Amino acid sequence: MLLKNKEEISLNTFEDNKIVEKNIFPITRKSIFTTDQEERVAILDTAKKIVALYEIKTSKEFKLSIPYDIKPKTILLNDDNLFIGGEMGKEILVQYHVQSQKWYQLEIPHKIAILGKAVDDLVVNDSMLIAIDNIISPQYVLFYNLNSAGKLEFLHFRELKSNSSYEDIYQCRITPEYLGIRSTTMNHGYMYEHITIYADLDLTKSFAISSEFKQKENFTDFILFKDKLFIANRKKGLGVFEIKNSYFKKSKDESFAFNTSVSENKIKYTQFKNEEIIRLTKIPNEFKIILTIKSKDGKIRYEIIGMQM
Q: Above 90 in pLDDT, residue 255?
């Protein structure tokens, strides 16, 4: 899935080392979208709370109305389910089972629900749905058992470490090796952006790369691949950072848990003059990334890079 312009996204394949456009879908400023990379595309109108579910092979479209009081923030589609996370409603995480066409409210622990929390991003690994909690502190990660039969079972939750006060989470990425989270903080009028890397899902060993910003954050996207972190930076271009085991530190006092800081100077940047990278897309089954690049006049182009650089 690639952003084509302000009003369209495109579904593409990668053939003969080229991006081949297969279909175009309309979006608005209120749209969030996802694909399972095999059978379906889902586009959610967050204002109307309506999901357009497209079958890629048949081009069939289904409209789904969310039957819960939720303010959607994030969406994820896997083989069997559509998941929607949100805030400021009676529900903050719901599931639509595609085959049975049934909606479910997923369990939120009482300790978290009473705090008025939110789900800001969702990722999956082989066996679990992982929901990343937002809204200041404390922040939690919720774990659910993935299955193809129906409603997901809640497993457990863990508290995230902090980078500073008033932390706001925007995005997470997961690989077999690491969990990464992009966030911002504010402390005494100073604003910082962070990319935090956790060594595993126990969330005890971690480090964070942090950078101060004035009005608009510069980190726009990131991708994890083996021992490399690829960062889209609004001002500096494409950054590549090598992850080393020595960077990960375990908190000595779990009641006062902050991430260890690693200098941004360790990131190697390649600049794009008069352009900014707004999105990074990993090509499935390829060691390549598509950079979505926007010029000063708003035009969008794509560039393919290898991940072994």
A: no
